[in-house]
Amino acid sequence: MRASIRPVDPQNPDPHLIAHAAAIIRAGGLVAFPTETVYGLGADGLNPAAVARIFEAKERPPTDPLILHIAEPETLLQLVREAPPVALELAHRFWPGPLTLVLPKQPGVPDIVTAGLATVAVRMPAHPVALALIRAARTPIAAPSANRFGRTSPTTARHVQDDLGDRIDLILDAGPTPIGVESTVLDLTRPVPTILRPGGLPREALEGLLGPVAVQTHLAEGPMPSPGLLPKHYAPRAPMILVIGPPPRMRATLRELVARYTAQGHRIGLLIAEEDRAETADLPAETLVLGPEGDLETVARRLYEGLRELDGRDLSLIIARDFGDQGLGLAVRDRLTRAAGGSIIQV
Ligand code: AMP
Ligand code: MG
After folding, report:
1. Where residue 222 falls among pLDDT bands split at 50, 70, 90?
2. Which protein residue has the closest C-alpha to ligand 1 atom 14?
3. Are 184 and 197 contacting, i.e. CB atoms less than 8 angstroms apart?
4. Which residues contact 121 (CB under 8 A, 6 or more apart)?
5. Which residue's C-alpha comes closest to atom 13 of ligand 1?
6. CA 255 to ligand 1 center in whole angstroms
7. Where are the beta strands (DSSP E) in 202-311?
8. What's CA 205's distance to the chain center, in Å?
9. 4-182 adopts what CATH topology?
10. Is the pLDDT of residue 230 over 60?
11. To test ligand 1's pocket by mutation, which of 68, 196, 218, 338 has the most ligand atoms within 8 angstroms of CB?
């Protein structure tokens, strides 16, 4: 099988093409489609056999649950056993948008979707193509990011084709995705709402409505764990080191690391900010500038493309700098930390 890539207008998707894609979903097939975060690999979320095909295509372990995508906030009530008032407030305020809510599941949600958990993750994406597809398919669409498990998430249809093109039925190509990192996953089943994965909706936006929000990821665990302890994820093929600290110190450390590893014969890629450009211009390294430190929207949008781009340049080591923990910076740090497999230097 070779997926056909069909261009689609991101604002006004062609209803015939959407009907064709929805028919594939209803027949148990796989359609990759754009959301505002990254491209998703969609299947009928209420059809266990169709959902099983997602796990096969991605080579995703069955222990890793999927997000159900809906097109109307009210559909949430058909998928969860109880929705506390705060869930409805969050949905009202932030949907459609890059926020996934984790709540106790209805028995009708297939176990394969939730990896056997008693909870289900649900979101309403803010992308006209995604919404049109879900509506036309008349079912919640289970959709993880449309990449092979452990690889960098796709922000263009081309990325999807490179990773999964021979394993799926159709790719809807609406151009690059506007946010570029996955949704924020928020667990509402705990006494304090808890971010399980920082993402496109910043923690500060949630705290404006909820008060204090916990962050339960490796990022919150004080001192960084030893290199190698973290599951490698969102990862380029070349090994990566992440440098965290005040910008002048990060720049000094980038210079030291390039000198040291070049001496060892490495071909080095640098993933940096606009502000680092002058101080790294003379280094023997391939540089990729994500954007200005203060423009985290641009940095997040270009992150995965940047990682893939460096990965295509035959490097033996990538050194990245951190972008702080404010706003989208936290999601960027999370993805870089995992891409680095925990190889972090704090300066
Ligand atoms: P992906 O769609 O590939 O970006 O991954 C979906 C994310 O949602 C993963 O980080 C999952 O662990 C998380 N997730 C999905 N369902 C649940 C759930 N029921 N409880 C906690 N996390 C979940
Ligand atoms: Mg993913």
Report:
1. very low
2. 65
3. yes
4. 65, 66, 67, 68, 100, 101, 102, 114, 185
5. 65
6. 37
7. 214-215, 240-244, 268-273, 286-291
8. 18
9. DHBP synthase (3.90.870)
10. no
11. 196
pLDDT at position 236, please?
A: 74
Does the beta carbon of 117 lie inside 6 Å of ligand 1? yes
Relative to the alpha carbon of 141, which ligand is closest?
A: 1
Specify the pLDDT at position 3.
Answer: 84
Q: What percent of the chain has pLDDT over 90?
A: 91
Residue with CA at minimum distance from ligand 1 atom 5: 144
Amino acid at 95: W
Whether the CB of 197 sits within 6 Å of ligand 1: yes
Structure tokens at 50: 């169709």
CATH architecture, domain defined by 240-346: 3-Layer(aba) Sandwich (3.40)
Give 241 Cα–ligand 2 centroid separation in angstroms: 21
Interval between CA 2 and ligand 1 midpoint (Å): 28
Burial state string for 210-240 with b = 16 or more CB within 10 A and e = fewer than 16: beebebebebeeeebeeeeebebbbbbebbb
Average pLDDT over residues 170-191: 98
Mutual orientation of helices 157-164 and 296-311 as an angle, nearest 10°?
40
Q: Ligand 1: which atom is nearest the Cα of residue 182? A: 4
pLDDT of 95-134, one tens digit each?
999 999 999 999 999 999 999 999 999 999 999 999 999 9
Tell me what pLDDT residue 2 has: 78
Distance CA 29, CA 53 (A): 8
CATH 3.90.870.10 residue ranges for the chain: 4-182
Nearest CA to ligand 1 atom 11: 65
Q: What's residue 218's pLDDT?
A: 66
Q: Where in the chain is the domain with CATH 3.40.50.11030?
A: 240-346
